[in-house]
Write a structure and sequence with these properties.
By secondary structure, the protein is mainly α. It has a domain at about 45-110. The chain is built from two helices and two strands, in the order ββαα. The chain has helices spanning about 45-70, 80-105, and strands spanning about 10, 10-15. It has a two-stranded antiparallel ribbon with strand order 1-2. Strand 1 (about 10) and strand 2 (about 10-15) form a beta hairpin. Helix 1 runs antiparallel to helix 2 (about 80-105). The longest helix is centred in the C-terminal third of the chain and has 27 residues, at about 80-105. Keywords: Cytoplasmic vesicle, Endosome, Golgi apparatus, Membrane, Synapse, Transmembrane, Transmembrane helix.
Length: about 120
Amino acid sequence: MMPARSSVSAGIPSSKVKYSKLADSDESYIDLQFKKSPPRVPYKAIALATILFLIGSLLIIIGALLLSGYIDVTNHDRTWPVLIIGILVFLPGFYHLRIAYYASKGYRGYSYEDIPDFD
């Protein structure tokens, strides 16, 4: 035989639980609550992307000059790491600068929200 159900569920008596009926119409919504505010421009992230882009470009140029022999080097095993590090630093800077440029021009699918912010 099963015990009778009590009116107390999880320690709360049923007389203390307040329910409210949902509205039948959508009149309680206004258009302003669905309007998106214009995104903030992440200036710090764009500055960091610019710095990464410039440092990466410089390292790629130096690595290419070392590799081609235009800059004479005694240890040739140091040319490839300069080139690889330059590429690894250049790529994220270029990617985020491209997103910032397209977002500033207003291209569809690009927004400042796609750039990570530090705030």
